[in-house]
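User: Let's play a game. I give you a shape written as tokens, and you guess the letters that built it. Ready? Here's round one.
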């Protein structure tokens, strides 16, 4: 009875979080034609019991919203911390909403490590995006040197702490754990490795925000997710979906969307 009770509680906790799959197209594709082709390929795919969000390049967000099926949401891959001004190359949450985006991907490792975004800037951007009515995919993750030095959770907790300082309502946030060493490298954290960190993230939320937020917040994995490994990853108790890079630019991406089925 004791085992059954805790299994039941765990099952209830898992089932309360709807599966979530995001496609982060990054700086791809380079033509509207390619987006239209993907939209056609996915149009008739049976996708059920999952929230799907497609992160298109900002110049294509309006077009992506027009051609993608209506049960898929569209994200921008970055938003700045203010509405407007002399910030060459940036876009604001208001601009994103104006062209049909309802999500913003913030804190991605490529923004942190290529463009030098700090924890503090990411906190400000998360806070402002949420204030403006966007949902946020808040990304955390360690580089290879940090993992090898057993610093994974110290890094992730530092990043989480900054993000949490900008969040008032966690219902509009998905946390994406993306080990930097697995992004675009072909290397994937094993299901056990990914589960361990996602479980620790949930524990951090329980200890530092609330048990309700920990139980309700969707924590997803990103890092060379593909058809071959998605079902094993999706079967882990604390992995509630994926943020997918290269595989989200393929006709068979719906197979990953349905990994929980």
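Assistant: Ready! My guess for every position:
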């Amino acid at each position: 009875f004791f085992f059954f009770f805790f299994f039941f509680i765990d099952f209830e906790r898992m089932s309360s979080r709807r599966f979530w799959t995001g496609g982060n197209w990054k700086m791809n594709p380079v033509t509207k034609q390619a987006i239209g082709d993907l939209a056609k390929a996915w149009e008739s795919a049976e996708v059920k019991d999952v929230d799907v969000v497609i992160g298109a390049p900002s110049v294509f967000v309006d077009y992506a919203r027009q051609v993608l099926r209506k049960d898929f949401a569209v994200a921008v891959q970055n938003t700045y911390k203010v509405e407007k001004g002399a910030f060459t190359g940036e876009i604001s949450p208001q601009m994103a909403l104006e062209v049909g985006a309802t999500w913003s991907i913030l804190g991605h490792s490529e923004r942190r490590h290529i463009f030098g975004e700090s924890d503090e800037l990411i906190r400000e951007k998360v806070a402002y995006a949420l204030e403006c009515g966007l949902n946020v995919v808040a990304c955390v993750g360690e580089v290879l040197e940090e993992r090898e030095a057993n610093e994974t959770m110290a890094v992730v907790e530092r990043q989480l702490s900054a993000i949490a300082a900008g969040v008032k309502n966690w219902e509009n946030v998905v946390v994406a754990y993306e080990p930097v060493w697995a992004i675009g490298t072909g290397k994937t954290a094993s299901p056990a490795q990914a589960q361990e960190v996602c479980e620790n993230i949930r524990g951090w939320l329980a200890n530092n925000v609330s048990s309700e937020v920990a139980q309700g917040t969707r924590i997803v994995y990103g890092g060379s997710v593909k058809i071959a490994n998605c079902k094993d990853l999706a079967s882990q108790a604390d992995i509630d979906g994926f943020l997918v890079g290269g595989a989200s630019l393929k006709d068979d991406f719906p197979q990953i969307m349905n990994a929980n089925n």
